[in-house]
């Protein structure tokens, strides 16, 4: 009887410990990942006048379908600036983050007349949303 009680207390303890470990290891990942739902709202507010996420739909700016991971200036038929054509850094999350913080400062001479998203959380959210467009 004593043994059983001890055993039960012990397994409750290890479940709690496992939960604590999970929570601490998951927290930083969530902070960096951003929220695609919030990102969609930001996209609708600040990007959609110039960008579509649909394949082949170019507006003032090129279609952003499958933007995360692809090469800059790779949408067929869009008239990119020379600055963007010369940009060889693939659009991973880090490159998008620094571009969206200050588009015209990051890639000098780009055609995107947009002041950027100064808030790092907004950028993480938008990037999380862009990741869904593939
Ligand atoms: C005023 C119009 C405008 C707004 C607003 C705008 N963009 Fe752009 N965007 C452009 C143009 C024009 C280009 C092409 C730049 C060039 O060729 O120099 C571009 C290029 C880009 C590229 C590179 C595309 C490629 O194919 O390499 C990304 C990524 C991008 N924009 C993301 C965004 C996001 C995300 C937002 C909203 C937070 C946004 N843009 C808001 C006009 C805009």
General description of the model:
With 134 residues, the chain is an all-alpha fold. The protein has 2 domains: 1-33; 35-130, Cytochrome Bc1 Complex, Chain D, domain 2. 53% of the residues lie in helices and 0% in strands. The chain contains 6 helices and no strands. Mean pLDDT is 83; it is low at 7-14 and 16-31. The structure holds heme C. The site of heme C has 28 residues, from helix 3 and helix 4. Heme C is lined by residues 46-47, 49-51, 60-62, 64, 67, 72-75, 80-81, 83-84, 91, 96, 100, 110-114, 117, 126.
Q: Which word captures the global form?
A: globular
Q: What is bound: which ligands?
A: heme C
Number of helical segments with 4 or more residues: 6
Q: How many beta-strand runs?
A: 0
Structure keywords:
single chain; 134 residues; Cytochrome Bc1 Complex, Chain D, domain 2; 2 domains; 53% helix; globular; binds heme C
Summarize this entry quickly.
The chain is 53% helix and 0% strand. It is mainly α and 134 residues long. Heme C binds at residues 46-47, 49-51, 60-62, 64, 67, 72-75, 80-81, 83-84, 91, 96, 100, 110-114, 117, 126.
